[in-house]
Structures are given as C-alpha cells and as structure tokens.
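User: Structure with inosinic acid, tokens only please.
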Amino acid sequence: MGSPPWNRDQDPFAELISADAIAQRCAELGAQITRDYAERAKSADIVVLGVLKGSVLFMADLSRHIALPIYLDFIGISSYGDDTKSSGVVQITQDLSRPIADKHVIVVEDIVDTGHTVHYLMENLATRKPASLSLCSLLHKPERSEREVKIDYLGFTIPNKFVVGYGLDIAQQWRNLPFIGFVTT
Ligand code: IMP
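Assistant:
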C-alpha cells in the first residue's frame, strides 16, 4: 500500500526523518525498554504514559514493540499556543485516568525542545510517588535547551528547526504525516 501521495510541492514542509527510519527506531527503543523492564514487570505494573496530543502516533508504534504487559494512559499538557514559540507556561489540560503510585512509569513525549514542559511534568509526576519514572522522547533539539532534562530513551536528535508530522503539529495541523518534516515557509 505504501504512504499516501503527499503533494510535496505544495506542502509547507520537507522530509527530515522518513517513516522507515521512525519505524526502525521504534523497534529498537521498544526492544530496549522490554529488556530494561522485564525484571521490574514482575514487581509492579508498568504504565506507558503518553503526553497528548503529540505523542499519540509514537505511542501507538512504540508500545507495540514493548513485549510486556503494560498499561497505557495519557496526560494532556499545554505549553504552546497556536504558534511556534514556547510560552514557558505549562498547564495540565487532562489528568491521568488512574493513580501511578508504586507503578513503573515511562513517559512518552514527542519532543524535548526548551525542556520546560517535560521538566514541569516529571516534577509533577514524581510527587505522585511512582515506583520509578523514566522518559522516552522521540525527538530532542539540544540547541534550544533551557532546562536540563534526562532523556532515558531518545529517538532522534534534530537541528534547531520547527518540525511537523508523526504527531507533531503546526497550528494543530499535519499531525497525521507518516514522516517528520521541517517547516519550509
Ligand atoms: P518545550 O517545553 O519547549 O520543551 O516544548 C515541548 C512541546 O512543544 C512539545 O511537546 C511540542 O508539543 C511543542 N514543540 C516544541 N518544538 C516543536 C516543533 O518543532 N514542532 C512541533 N511542536 C513542537
């Protein structure tokens, strides 16, 4: 079947990371998480926690490569308006469906940019006393870093470009692209 025929000439982005490269990296990260959590799975539940909305596609693909009995949950966070600039203001727009106390929590993010969002989120989740807390981010833009963030599982390091696709948006659009593109306009 392949990918739908995106009209690359008219679209305001160009491909940065292909769908194949993303699929390959999801398999690698999932295998690594499976190895790292196999022992821990015996003592407590594992919750794979997606940060809405950007992590949804990554979460769906990654979780299918984690060969353990995991729970999926989501948390809604808003840190951006409908533009490309970080406001630095972070708000929980939708909370977890179940408590995470005494559970092994793997947070799944789309991108660590300035780091403010993840910093706030990890501090917030830590107060809920999980058995362990780790971070898996598809992308990292180290040039933009303003907060030190420990990324336990990282998909790709990218240059300082605004990216869209595979869950990431510009003004809420283009999350459905099967690849990651950088904005060209
Ligand atoms: P941070 O707080 O600056 O690290 O921003 C994190 C959030 O901003 C991410 O979860 C994204 O939703 C959004 N974001 C940051 N950079 C980009 C980008 O290049 N494209 C789309 N969204 C982005």
